[in-house]
Inverse folding.
């Protein structure tokens, strides 16, 4: 599916088979000298086929194309290694580039999952099916690093980089002030809630995410081009809804811990999830994995606020009301 949103700016829908996200929005900006593609899809045949068909229809020549990637997740970055040519620049942010350079720290994630009560018997299945491992980009990508306030100029567009950490440490949006458009990546989505997860103890992603929402709230935006699902206009309203969503989550977790201390996996199993399965036990392994990551992000936030606290019981972290 291809849609011309504004002059020379196209949305290309790249399917994400078997993912609840359904598809990725890749954006192409066409220009006589260099084209720009924003986000790419997983590194797998279905994404490559859709990308090539779309580029042909739009008339984008990859030999004259640069890339901007909003963040490190494989549904955004994965395919870029198979699309670049000798002349391509890949614009990216430093924190996510550092994270990739350190290697995919899967073993650390697994230890962290164990600490938080993820069942041993499901760890192998989560490892086998995680799309971040299966569909990541190949080889060592050379990035052209951008920072807050840097600009990418292309034809009639001058995109300003807005650092929006939270979904990942380095997540970056693009803002076009004269056209009042925001390329939002996974910072603000309309039909689903961006997933904020924590898989190490080194930072507080929700604190950064909520601050990044505040930051974008201050921009004059008429049209949001998100990484998934539909484009939308009511940016300020959507930001309010997302803030309320996390407030509700905090309340829910406080109430769950009010009934006794629990590890993060147990907390996640008692939270409400907008998913088609009737009970937690029926969730696919990977959905439990992501749900626990989200629970941990909220627990970390509440812990830093002094509302809850942790202690170790044996080899597991246990959270309780402060
Ligand atoms: Zn995404």
């Amino acid at each position: 599916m291809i849609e011309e949103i504004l002059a020379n700016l196209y949305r290309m829908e790249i399917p994400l088979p078997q993912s609840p996200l359904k598809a990725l929005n890749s954006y192409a900006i066409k220009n006589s000298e260099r084209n720009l593609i924003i986000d790419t899809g997983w590194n797998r045949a279905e994404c490559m086929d859709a990308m090539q068909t779309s580029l042909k229809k739009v008339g984008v020549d990859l030999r004259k194309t640069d890339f901007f990637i909003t963040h490190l997740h494989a549904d955004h970055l994965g395919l870029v290694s198979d699309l670049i040519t000798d002349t391509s620049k890949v614009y990216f942010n430093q924190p996510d580039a550092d994270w990739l350079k350190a290697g995919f720290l899967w073993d650390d994630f697994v230890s962290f999952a164990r600490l938080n009560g993820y069942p041993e018997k499901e760890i192998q299945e989560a490892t086998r099916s995680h799309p971040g491992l299966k569909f990541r980009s190949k080889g060592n990508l050379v990035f052209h690093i951008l920072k807050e306030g840097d600009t990418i100029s292309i034809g009639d567009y001058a995109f300003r980089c807005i650092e929006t950490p939270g979904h990942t440490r380095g997540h970056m949006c693009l803002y076009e002030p004269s056209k009042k458009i925001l390329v939002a990546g996974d910072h603000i989505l309309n039909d689903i809630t961006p997933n904020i997860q924590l898989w190490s103890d080194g930072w507080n992603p929700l604190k950064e995410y909520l601050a990044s929402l505040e930051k974008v709230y201050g921009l004059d935006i008429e049209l949001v081009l998100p990484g998934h699902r539909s484009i939308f206009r009511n940016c300020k309203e959507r930001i309010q809804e997302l803030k309320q969503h996390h407030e509700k989550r905090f309340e829910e977790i406080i109430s769950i811990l009010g009934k006794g201390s629990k590890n993060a996996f147990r907390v996640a199993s008692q939270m409400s999830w907008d998913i088609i399965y009737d009970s937690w036990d029926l969730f696919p392994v990977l959905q439990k994995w992501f749900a626990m990551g989200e629970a941990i992000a909220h627990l970390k936030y509440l812990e830093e606020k002094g509302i809850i606290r942790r202690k170790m019981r044996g080899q597991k972290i246990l959270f309780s009301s402060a």
Observations:
- The chain has a mean pLDDT of 95.
- The longest strand covers residues 9-15.
- The CA atoms of residues 67 and 90 lie 5 Å apart.
